[in-house]
Write a structure and sequence with these properties.
Number of domains: 1
Number of strands: 0
CATH class: Mainly Alpha
Order of helices and strands: HHHHHH
Protein name: Hemerythrin domain-containing protein
CATH superfamily: nmb1532 protein domain like
InterPro entries: Hemerythrin-like
Bound molecules: fe (ii) ion
Distance between the termini: 29 Å
Structural class: mainly alpha
Pfam family, one: Hemerythrin
Strand content: under 5%
Number of helices: 6
Largest sheet: none
CATH architecture: Up-down Bundle
Shape: globular
Oligomer: single chain
């Protein structure tokens, strides 16, 4: 399960890189592909919020229950996931509006994107640098066996980085491959 989480993080970092590149282009007044950004928020909404975060939440809840962890850690993880979900929805809504030709000042959109990317990175780095190493050194094989049994979305397929890419994400997959 931890391998899955690490792999998801690498994949999400690639998507954040695409977003960063778009921010640079926007600042240089270049045309950007909003449809591509929409694919990213779609992926994060459908895959991260419905699969990646629930898997983490399951592991974290177990870890928090059976190991001594400060309240600060417990609260931060929960708050981060809630906040990321809200930020993803807000960014997705804004991209939808732009795709429907609503006038949104460029600065407002850049600020939204930057806020989103920075929060995502902070969260990923926190998990990778502090939480996951602590969990890895603390949980036993037995613990993992319990967790795997509890994980009920086992068969969920990654529609972008998985073995077969769904039509919805083909353009994004190609973009990542060539960039
Ligand atoms: Fe997370
Ligand atoms: Fe994560």
């Amino acid at each position: 399960m931890l391998n899955r989480i690490h792999k998801d993080h690498k994949n999400i970092m690639q998507l954040l890189q695409v977003m960063d590149n778009h921010i640079v282009s926007l600042k240089l007044d270049k045309e950007i592909d909003y449809q591509l950004l929409k694919s990213i928020t779609d992926y994060l909404k459908h895959y991260s919020d419905k699969y990646h975060h629930p898997m983490e939440n399951l592991i974290y809840a177990y870890y928090l229950k059976y190991r001594v962890v400060t309240d600060q850690v417990a609260n931060r993880l929960e708050d981060d996931h809630k906040q990321l979900k809200i930020l993803t929805t807000e960014l997705d809504d804004m991209i939808n509006m732009i795709l429907l030709d609503a006038i949104i000042p460029k600065e407002v959109f850049i600020e939204k994107m930057e806020g989103f990317v920075s929060k995502q990175k902070q969260h990923l780095n926190y998990e990778e640098a502090e939480i996951l190493p602590a969990i890895q050194s603390s949980l036993t094989e037995d613990d993992w066996a319990h967790l795997i049994l509890q994980w009920k979305h086992k068969e969920y397929v990654d529609p972008l980085f998985g073995e077969s890419i769904s039509d919805q994400f083909k353009a994004l997959a190609l973009h990542i491959k060539v960039s």
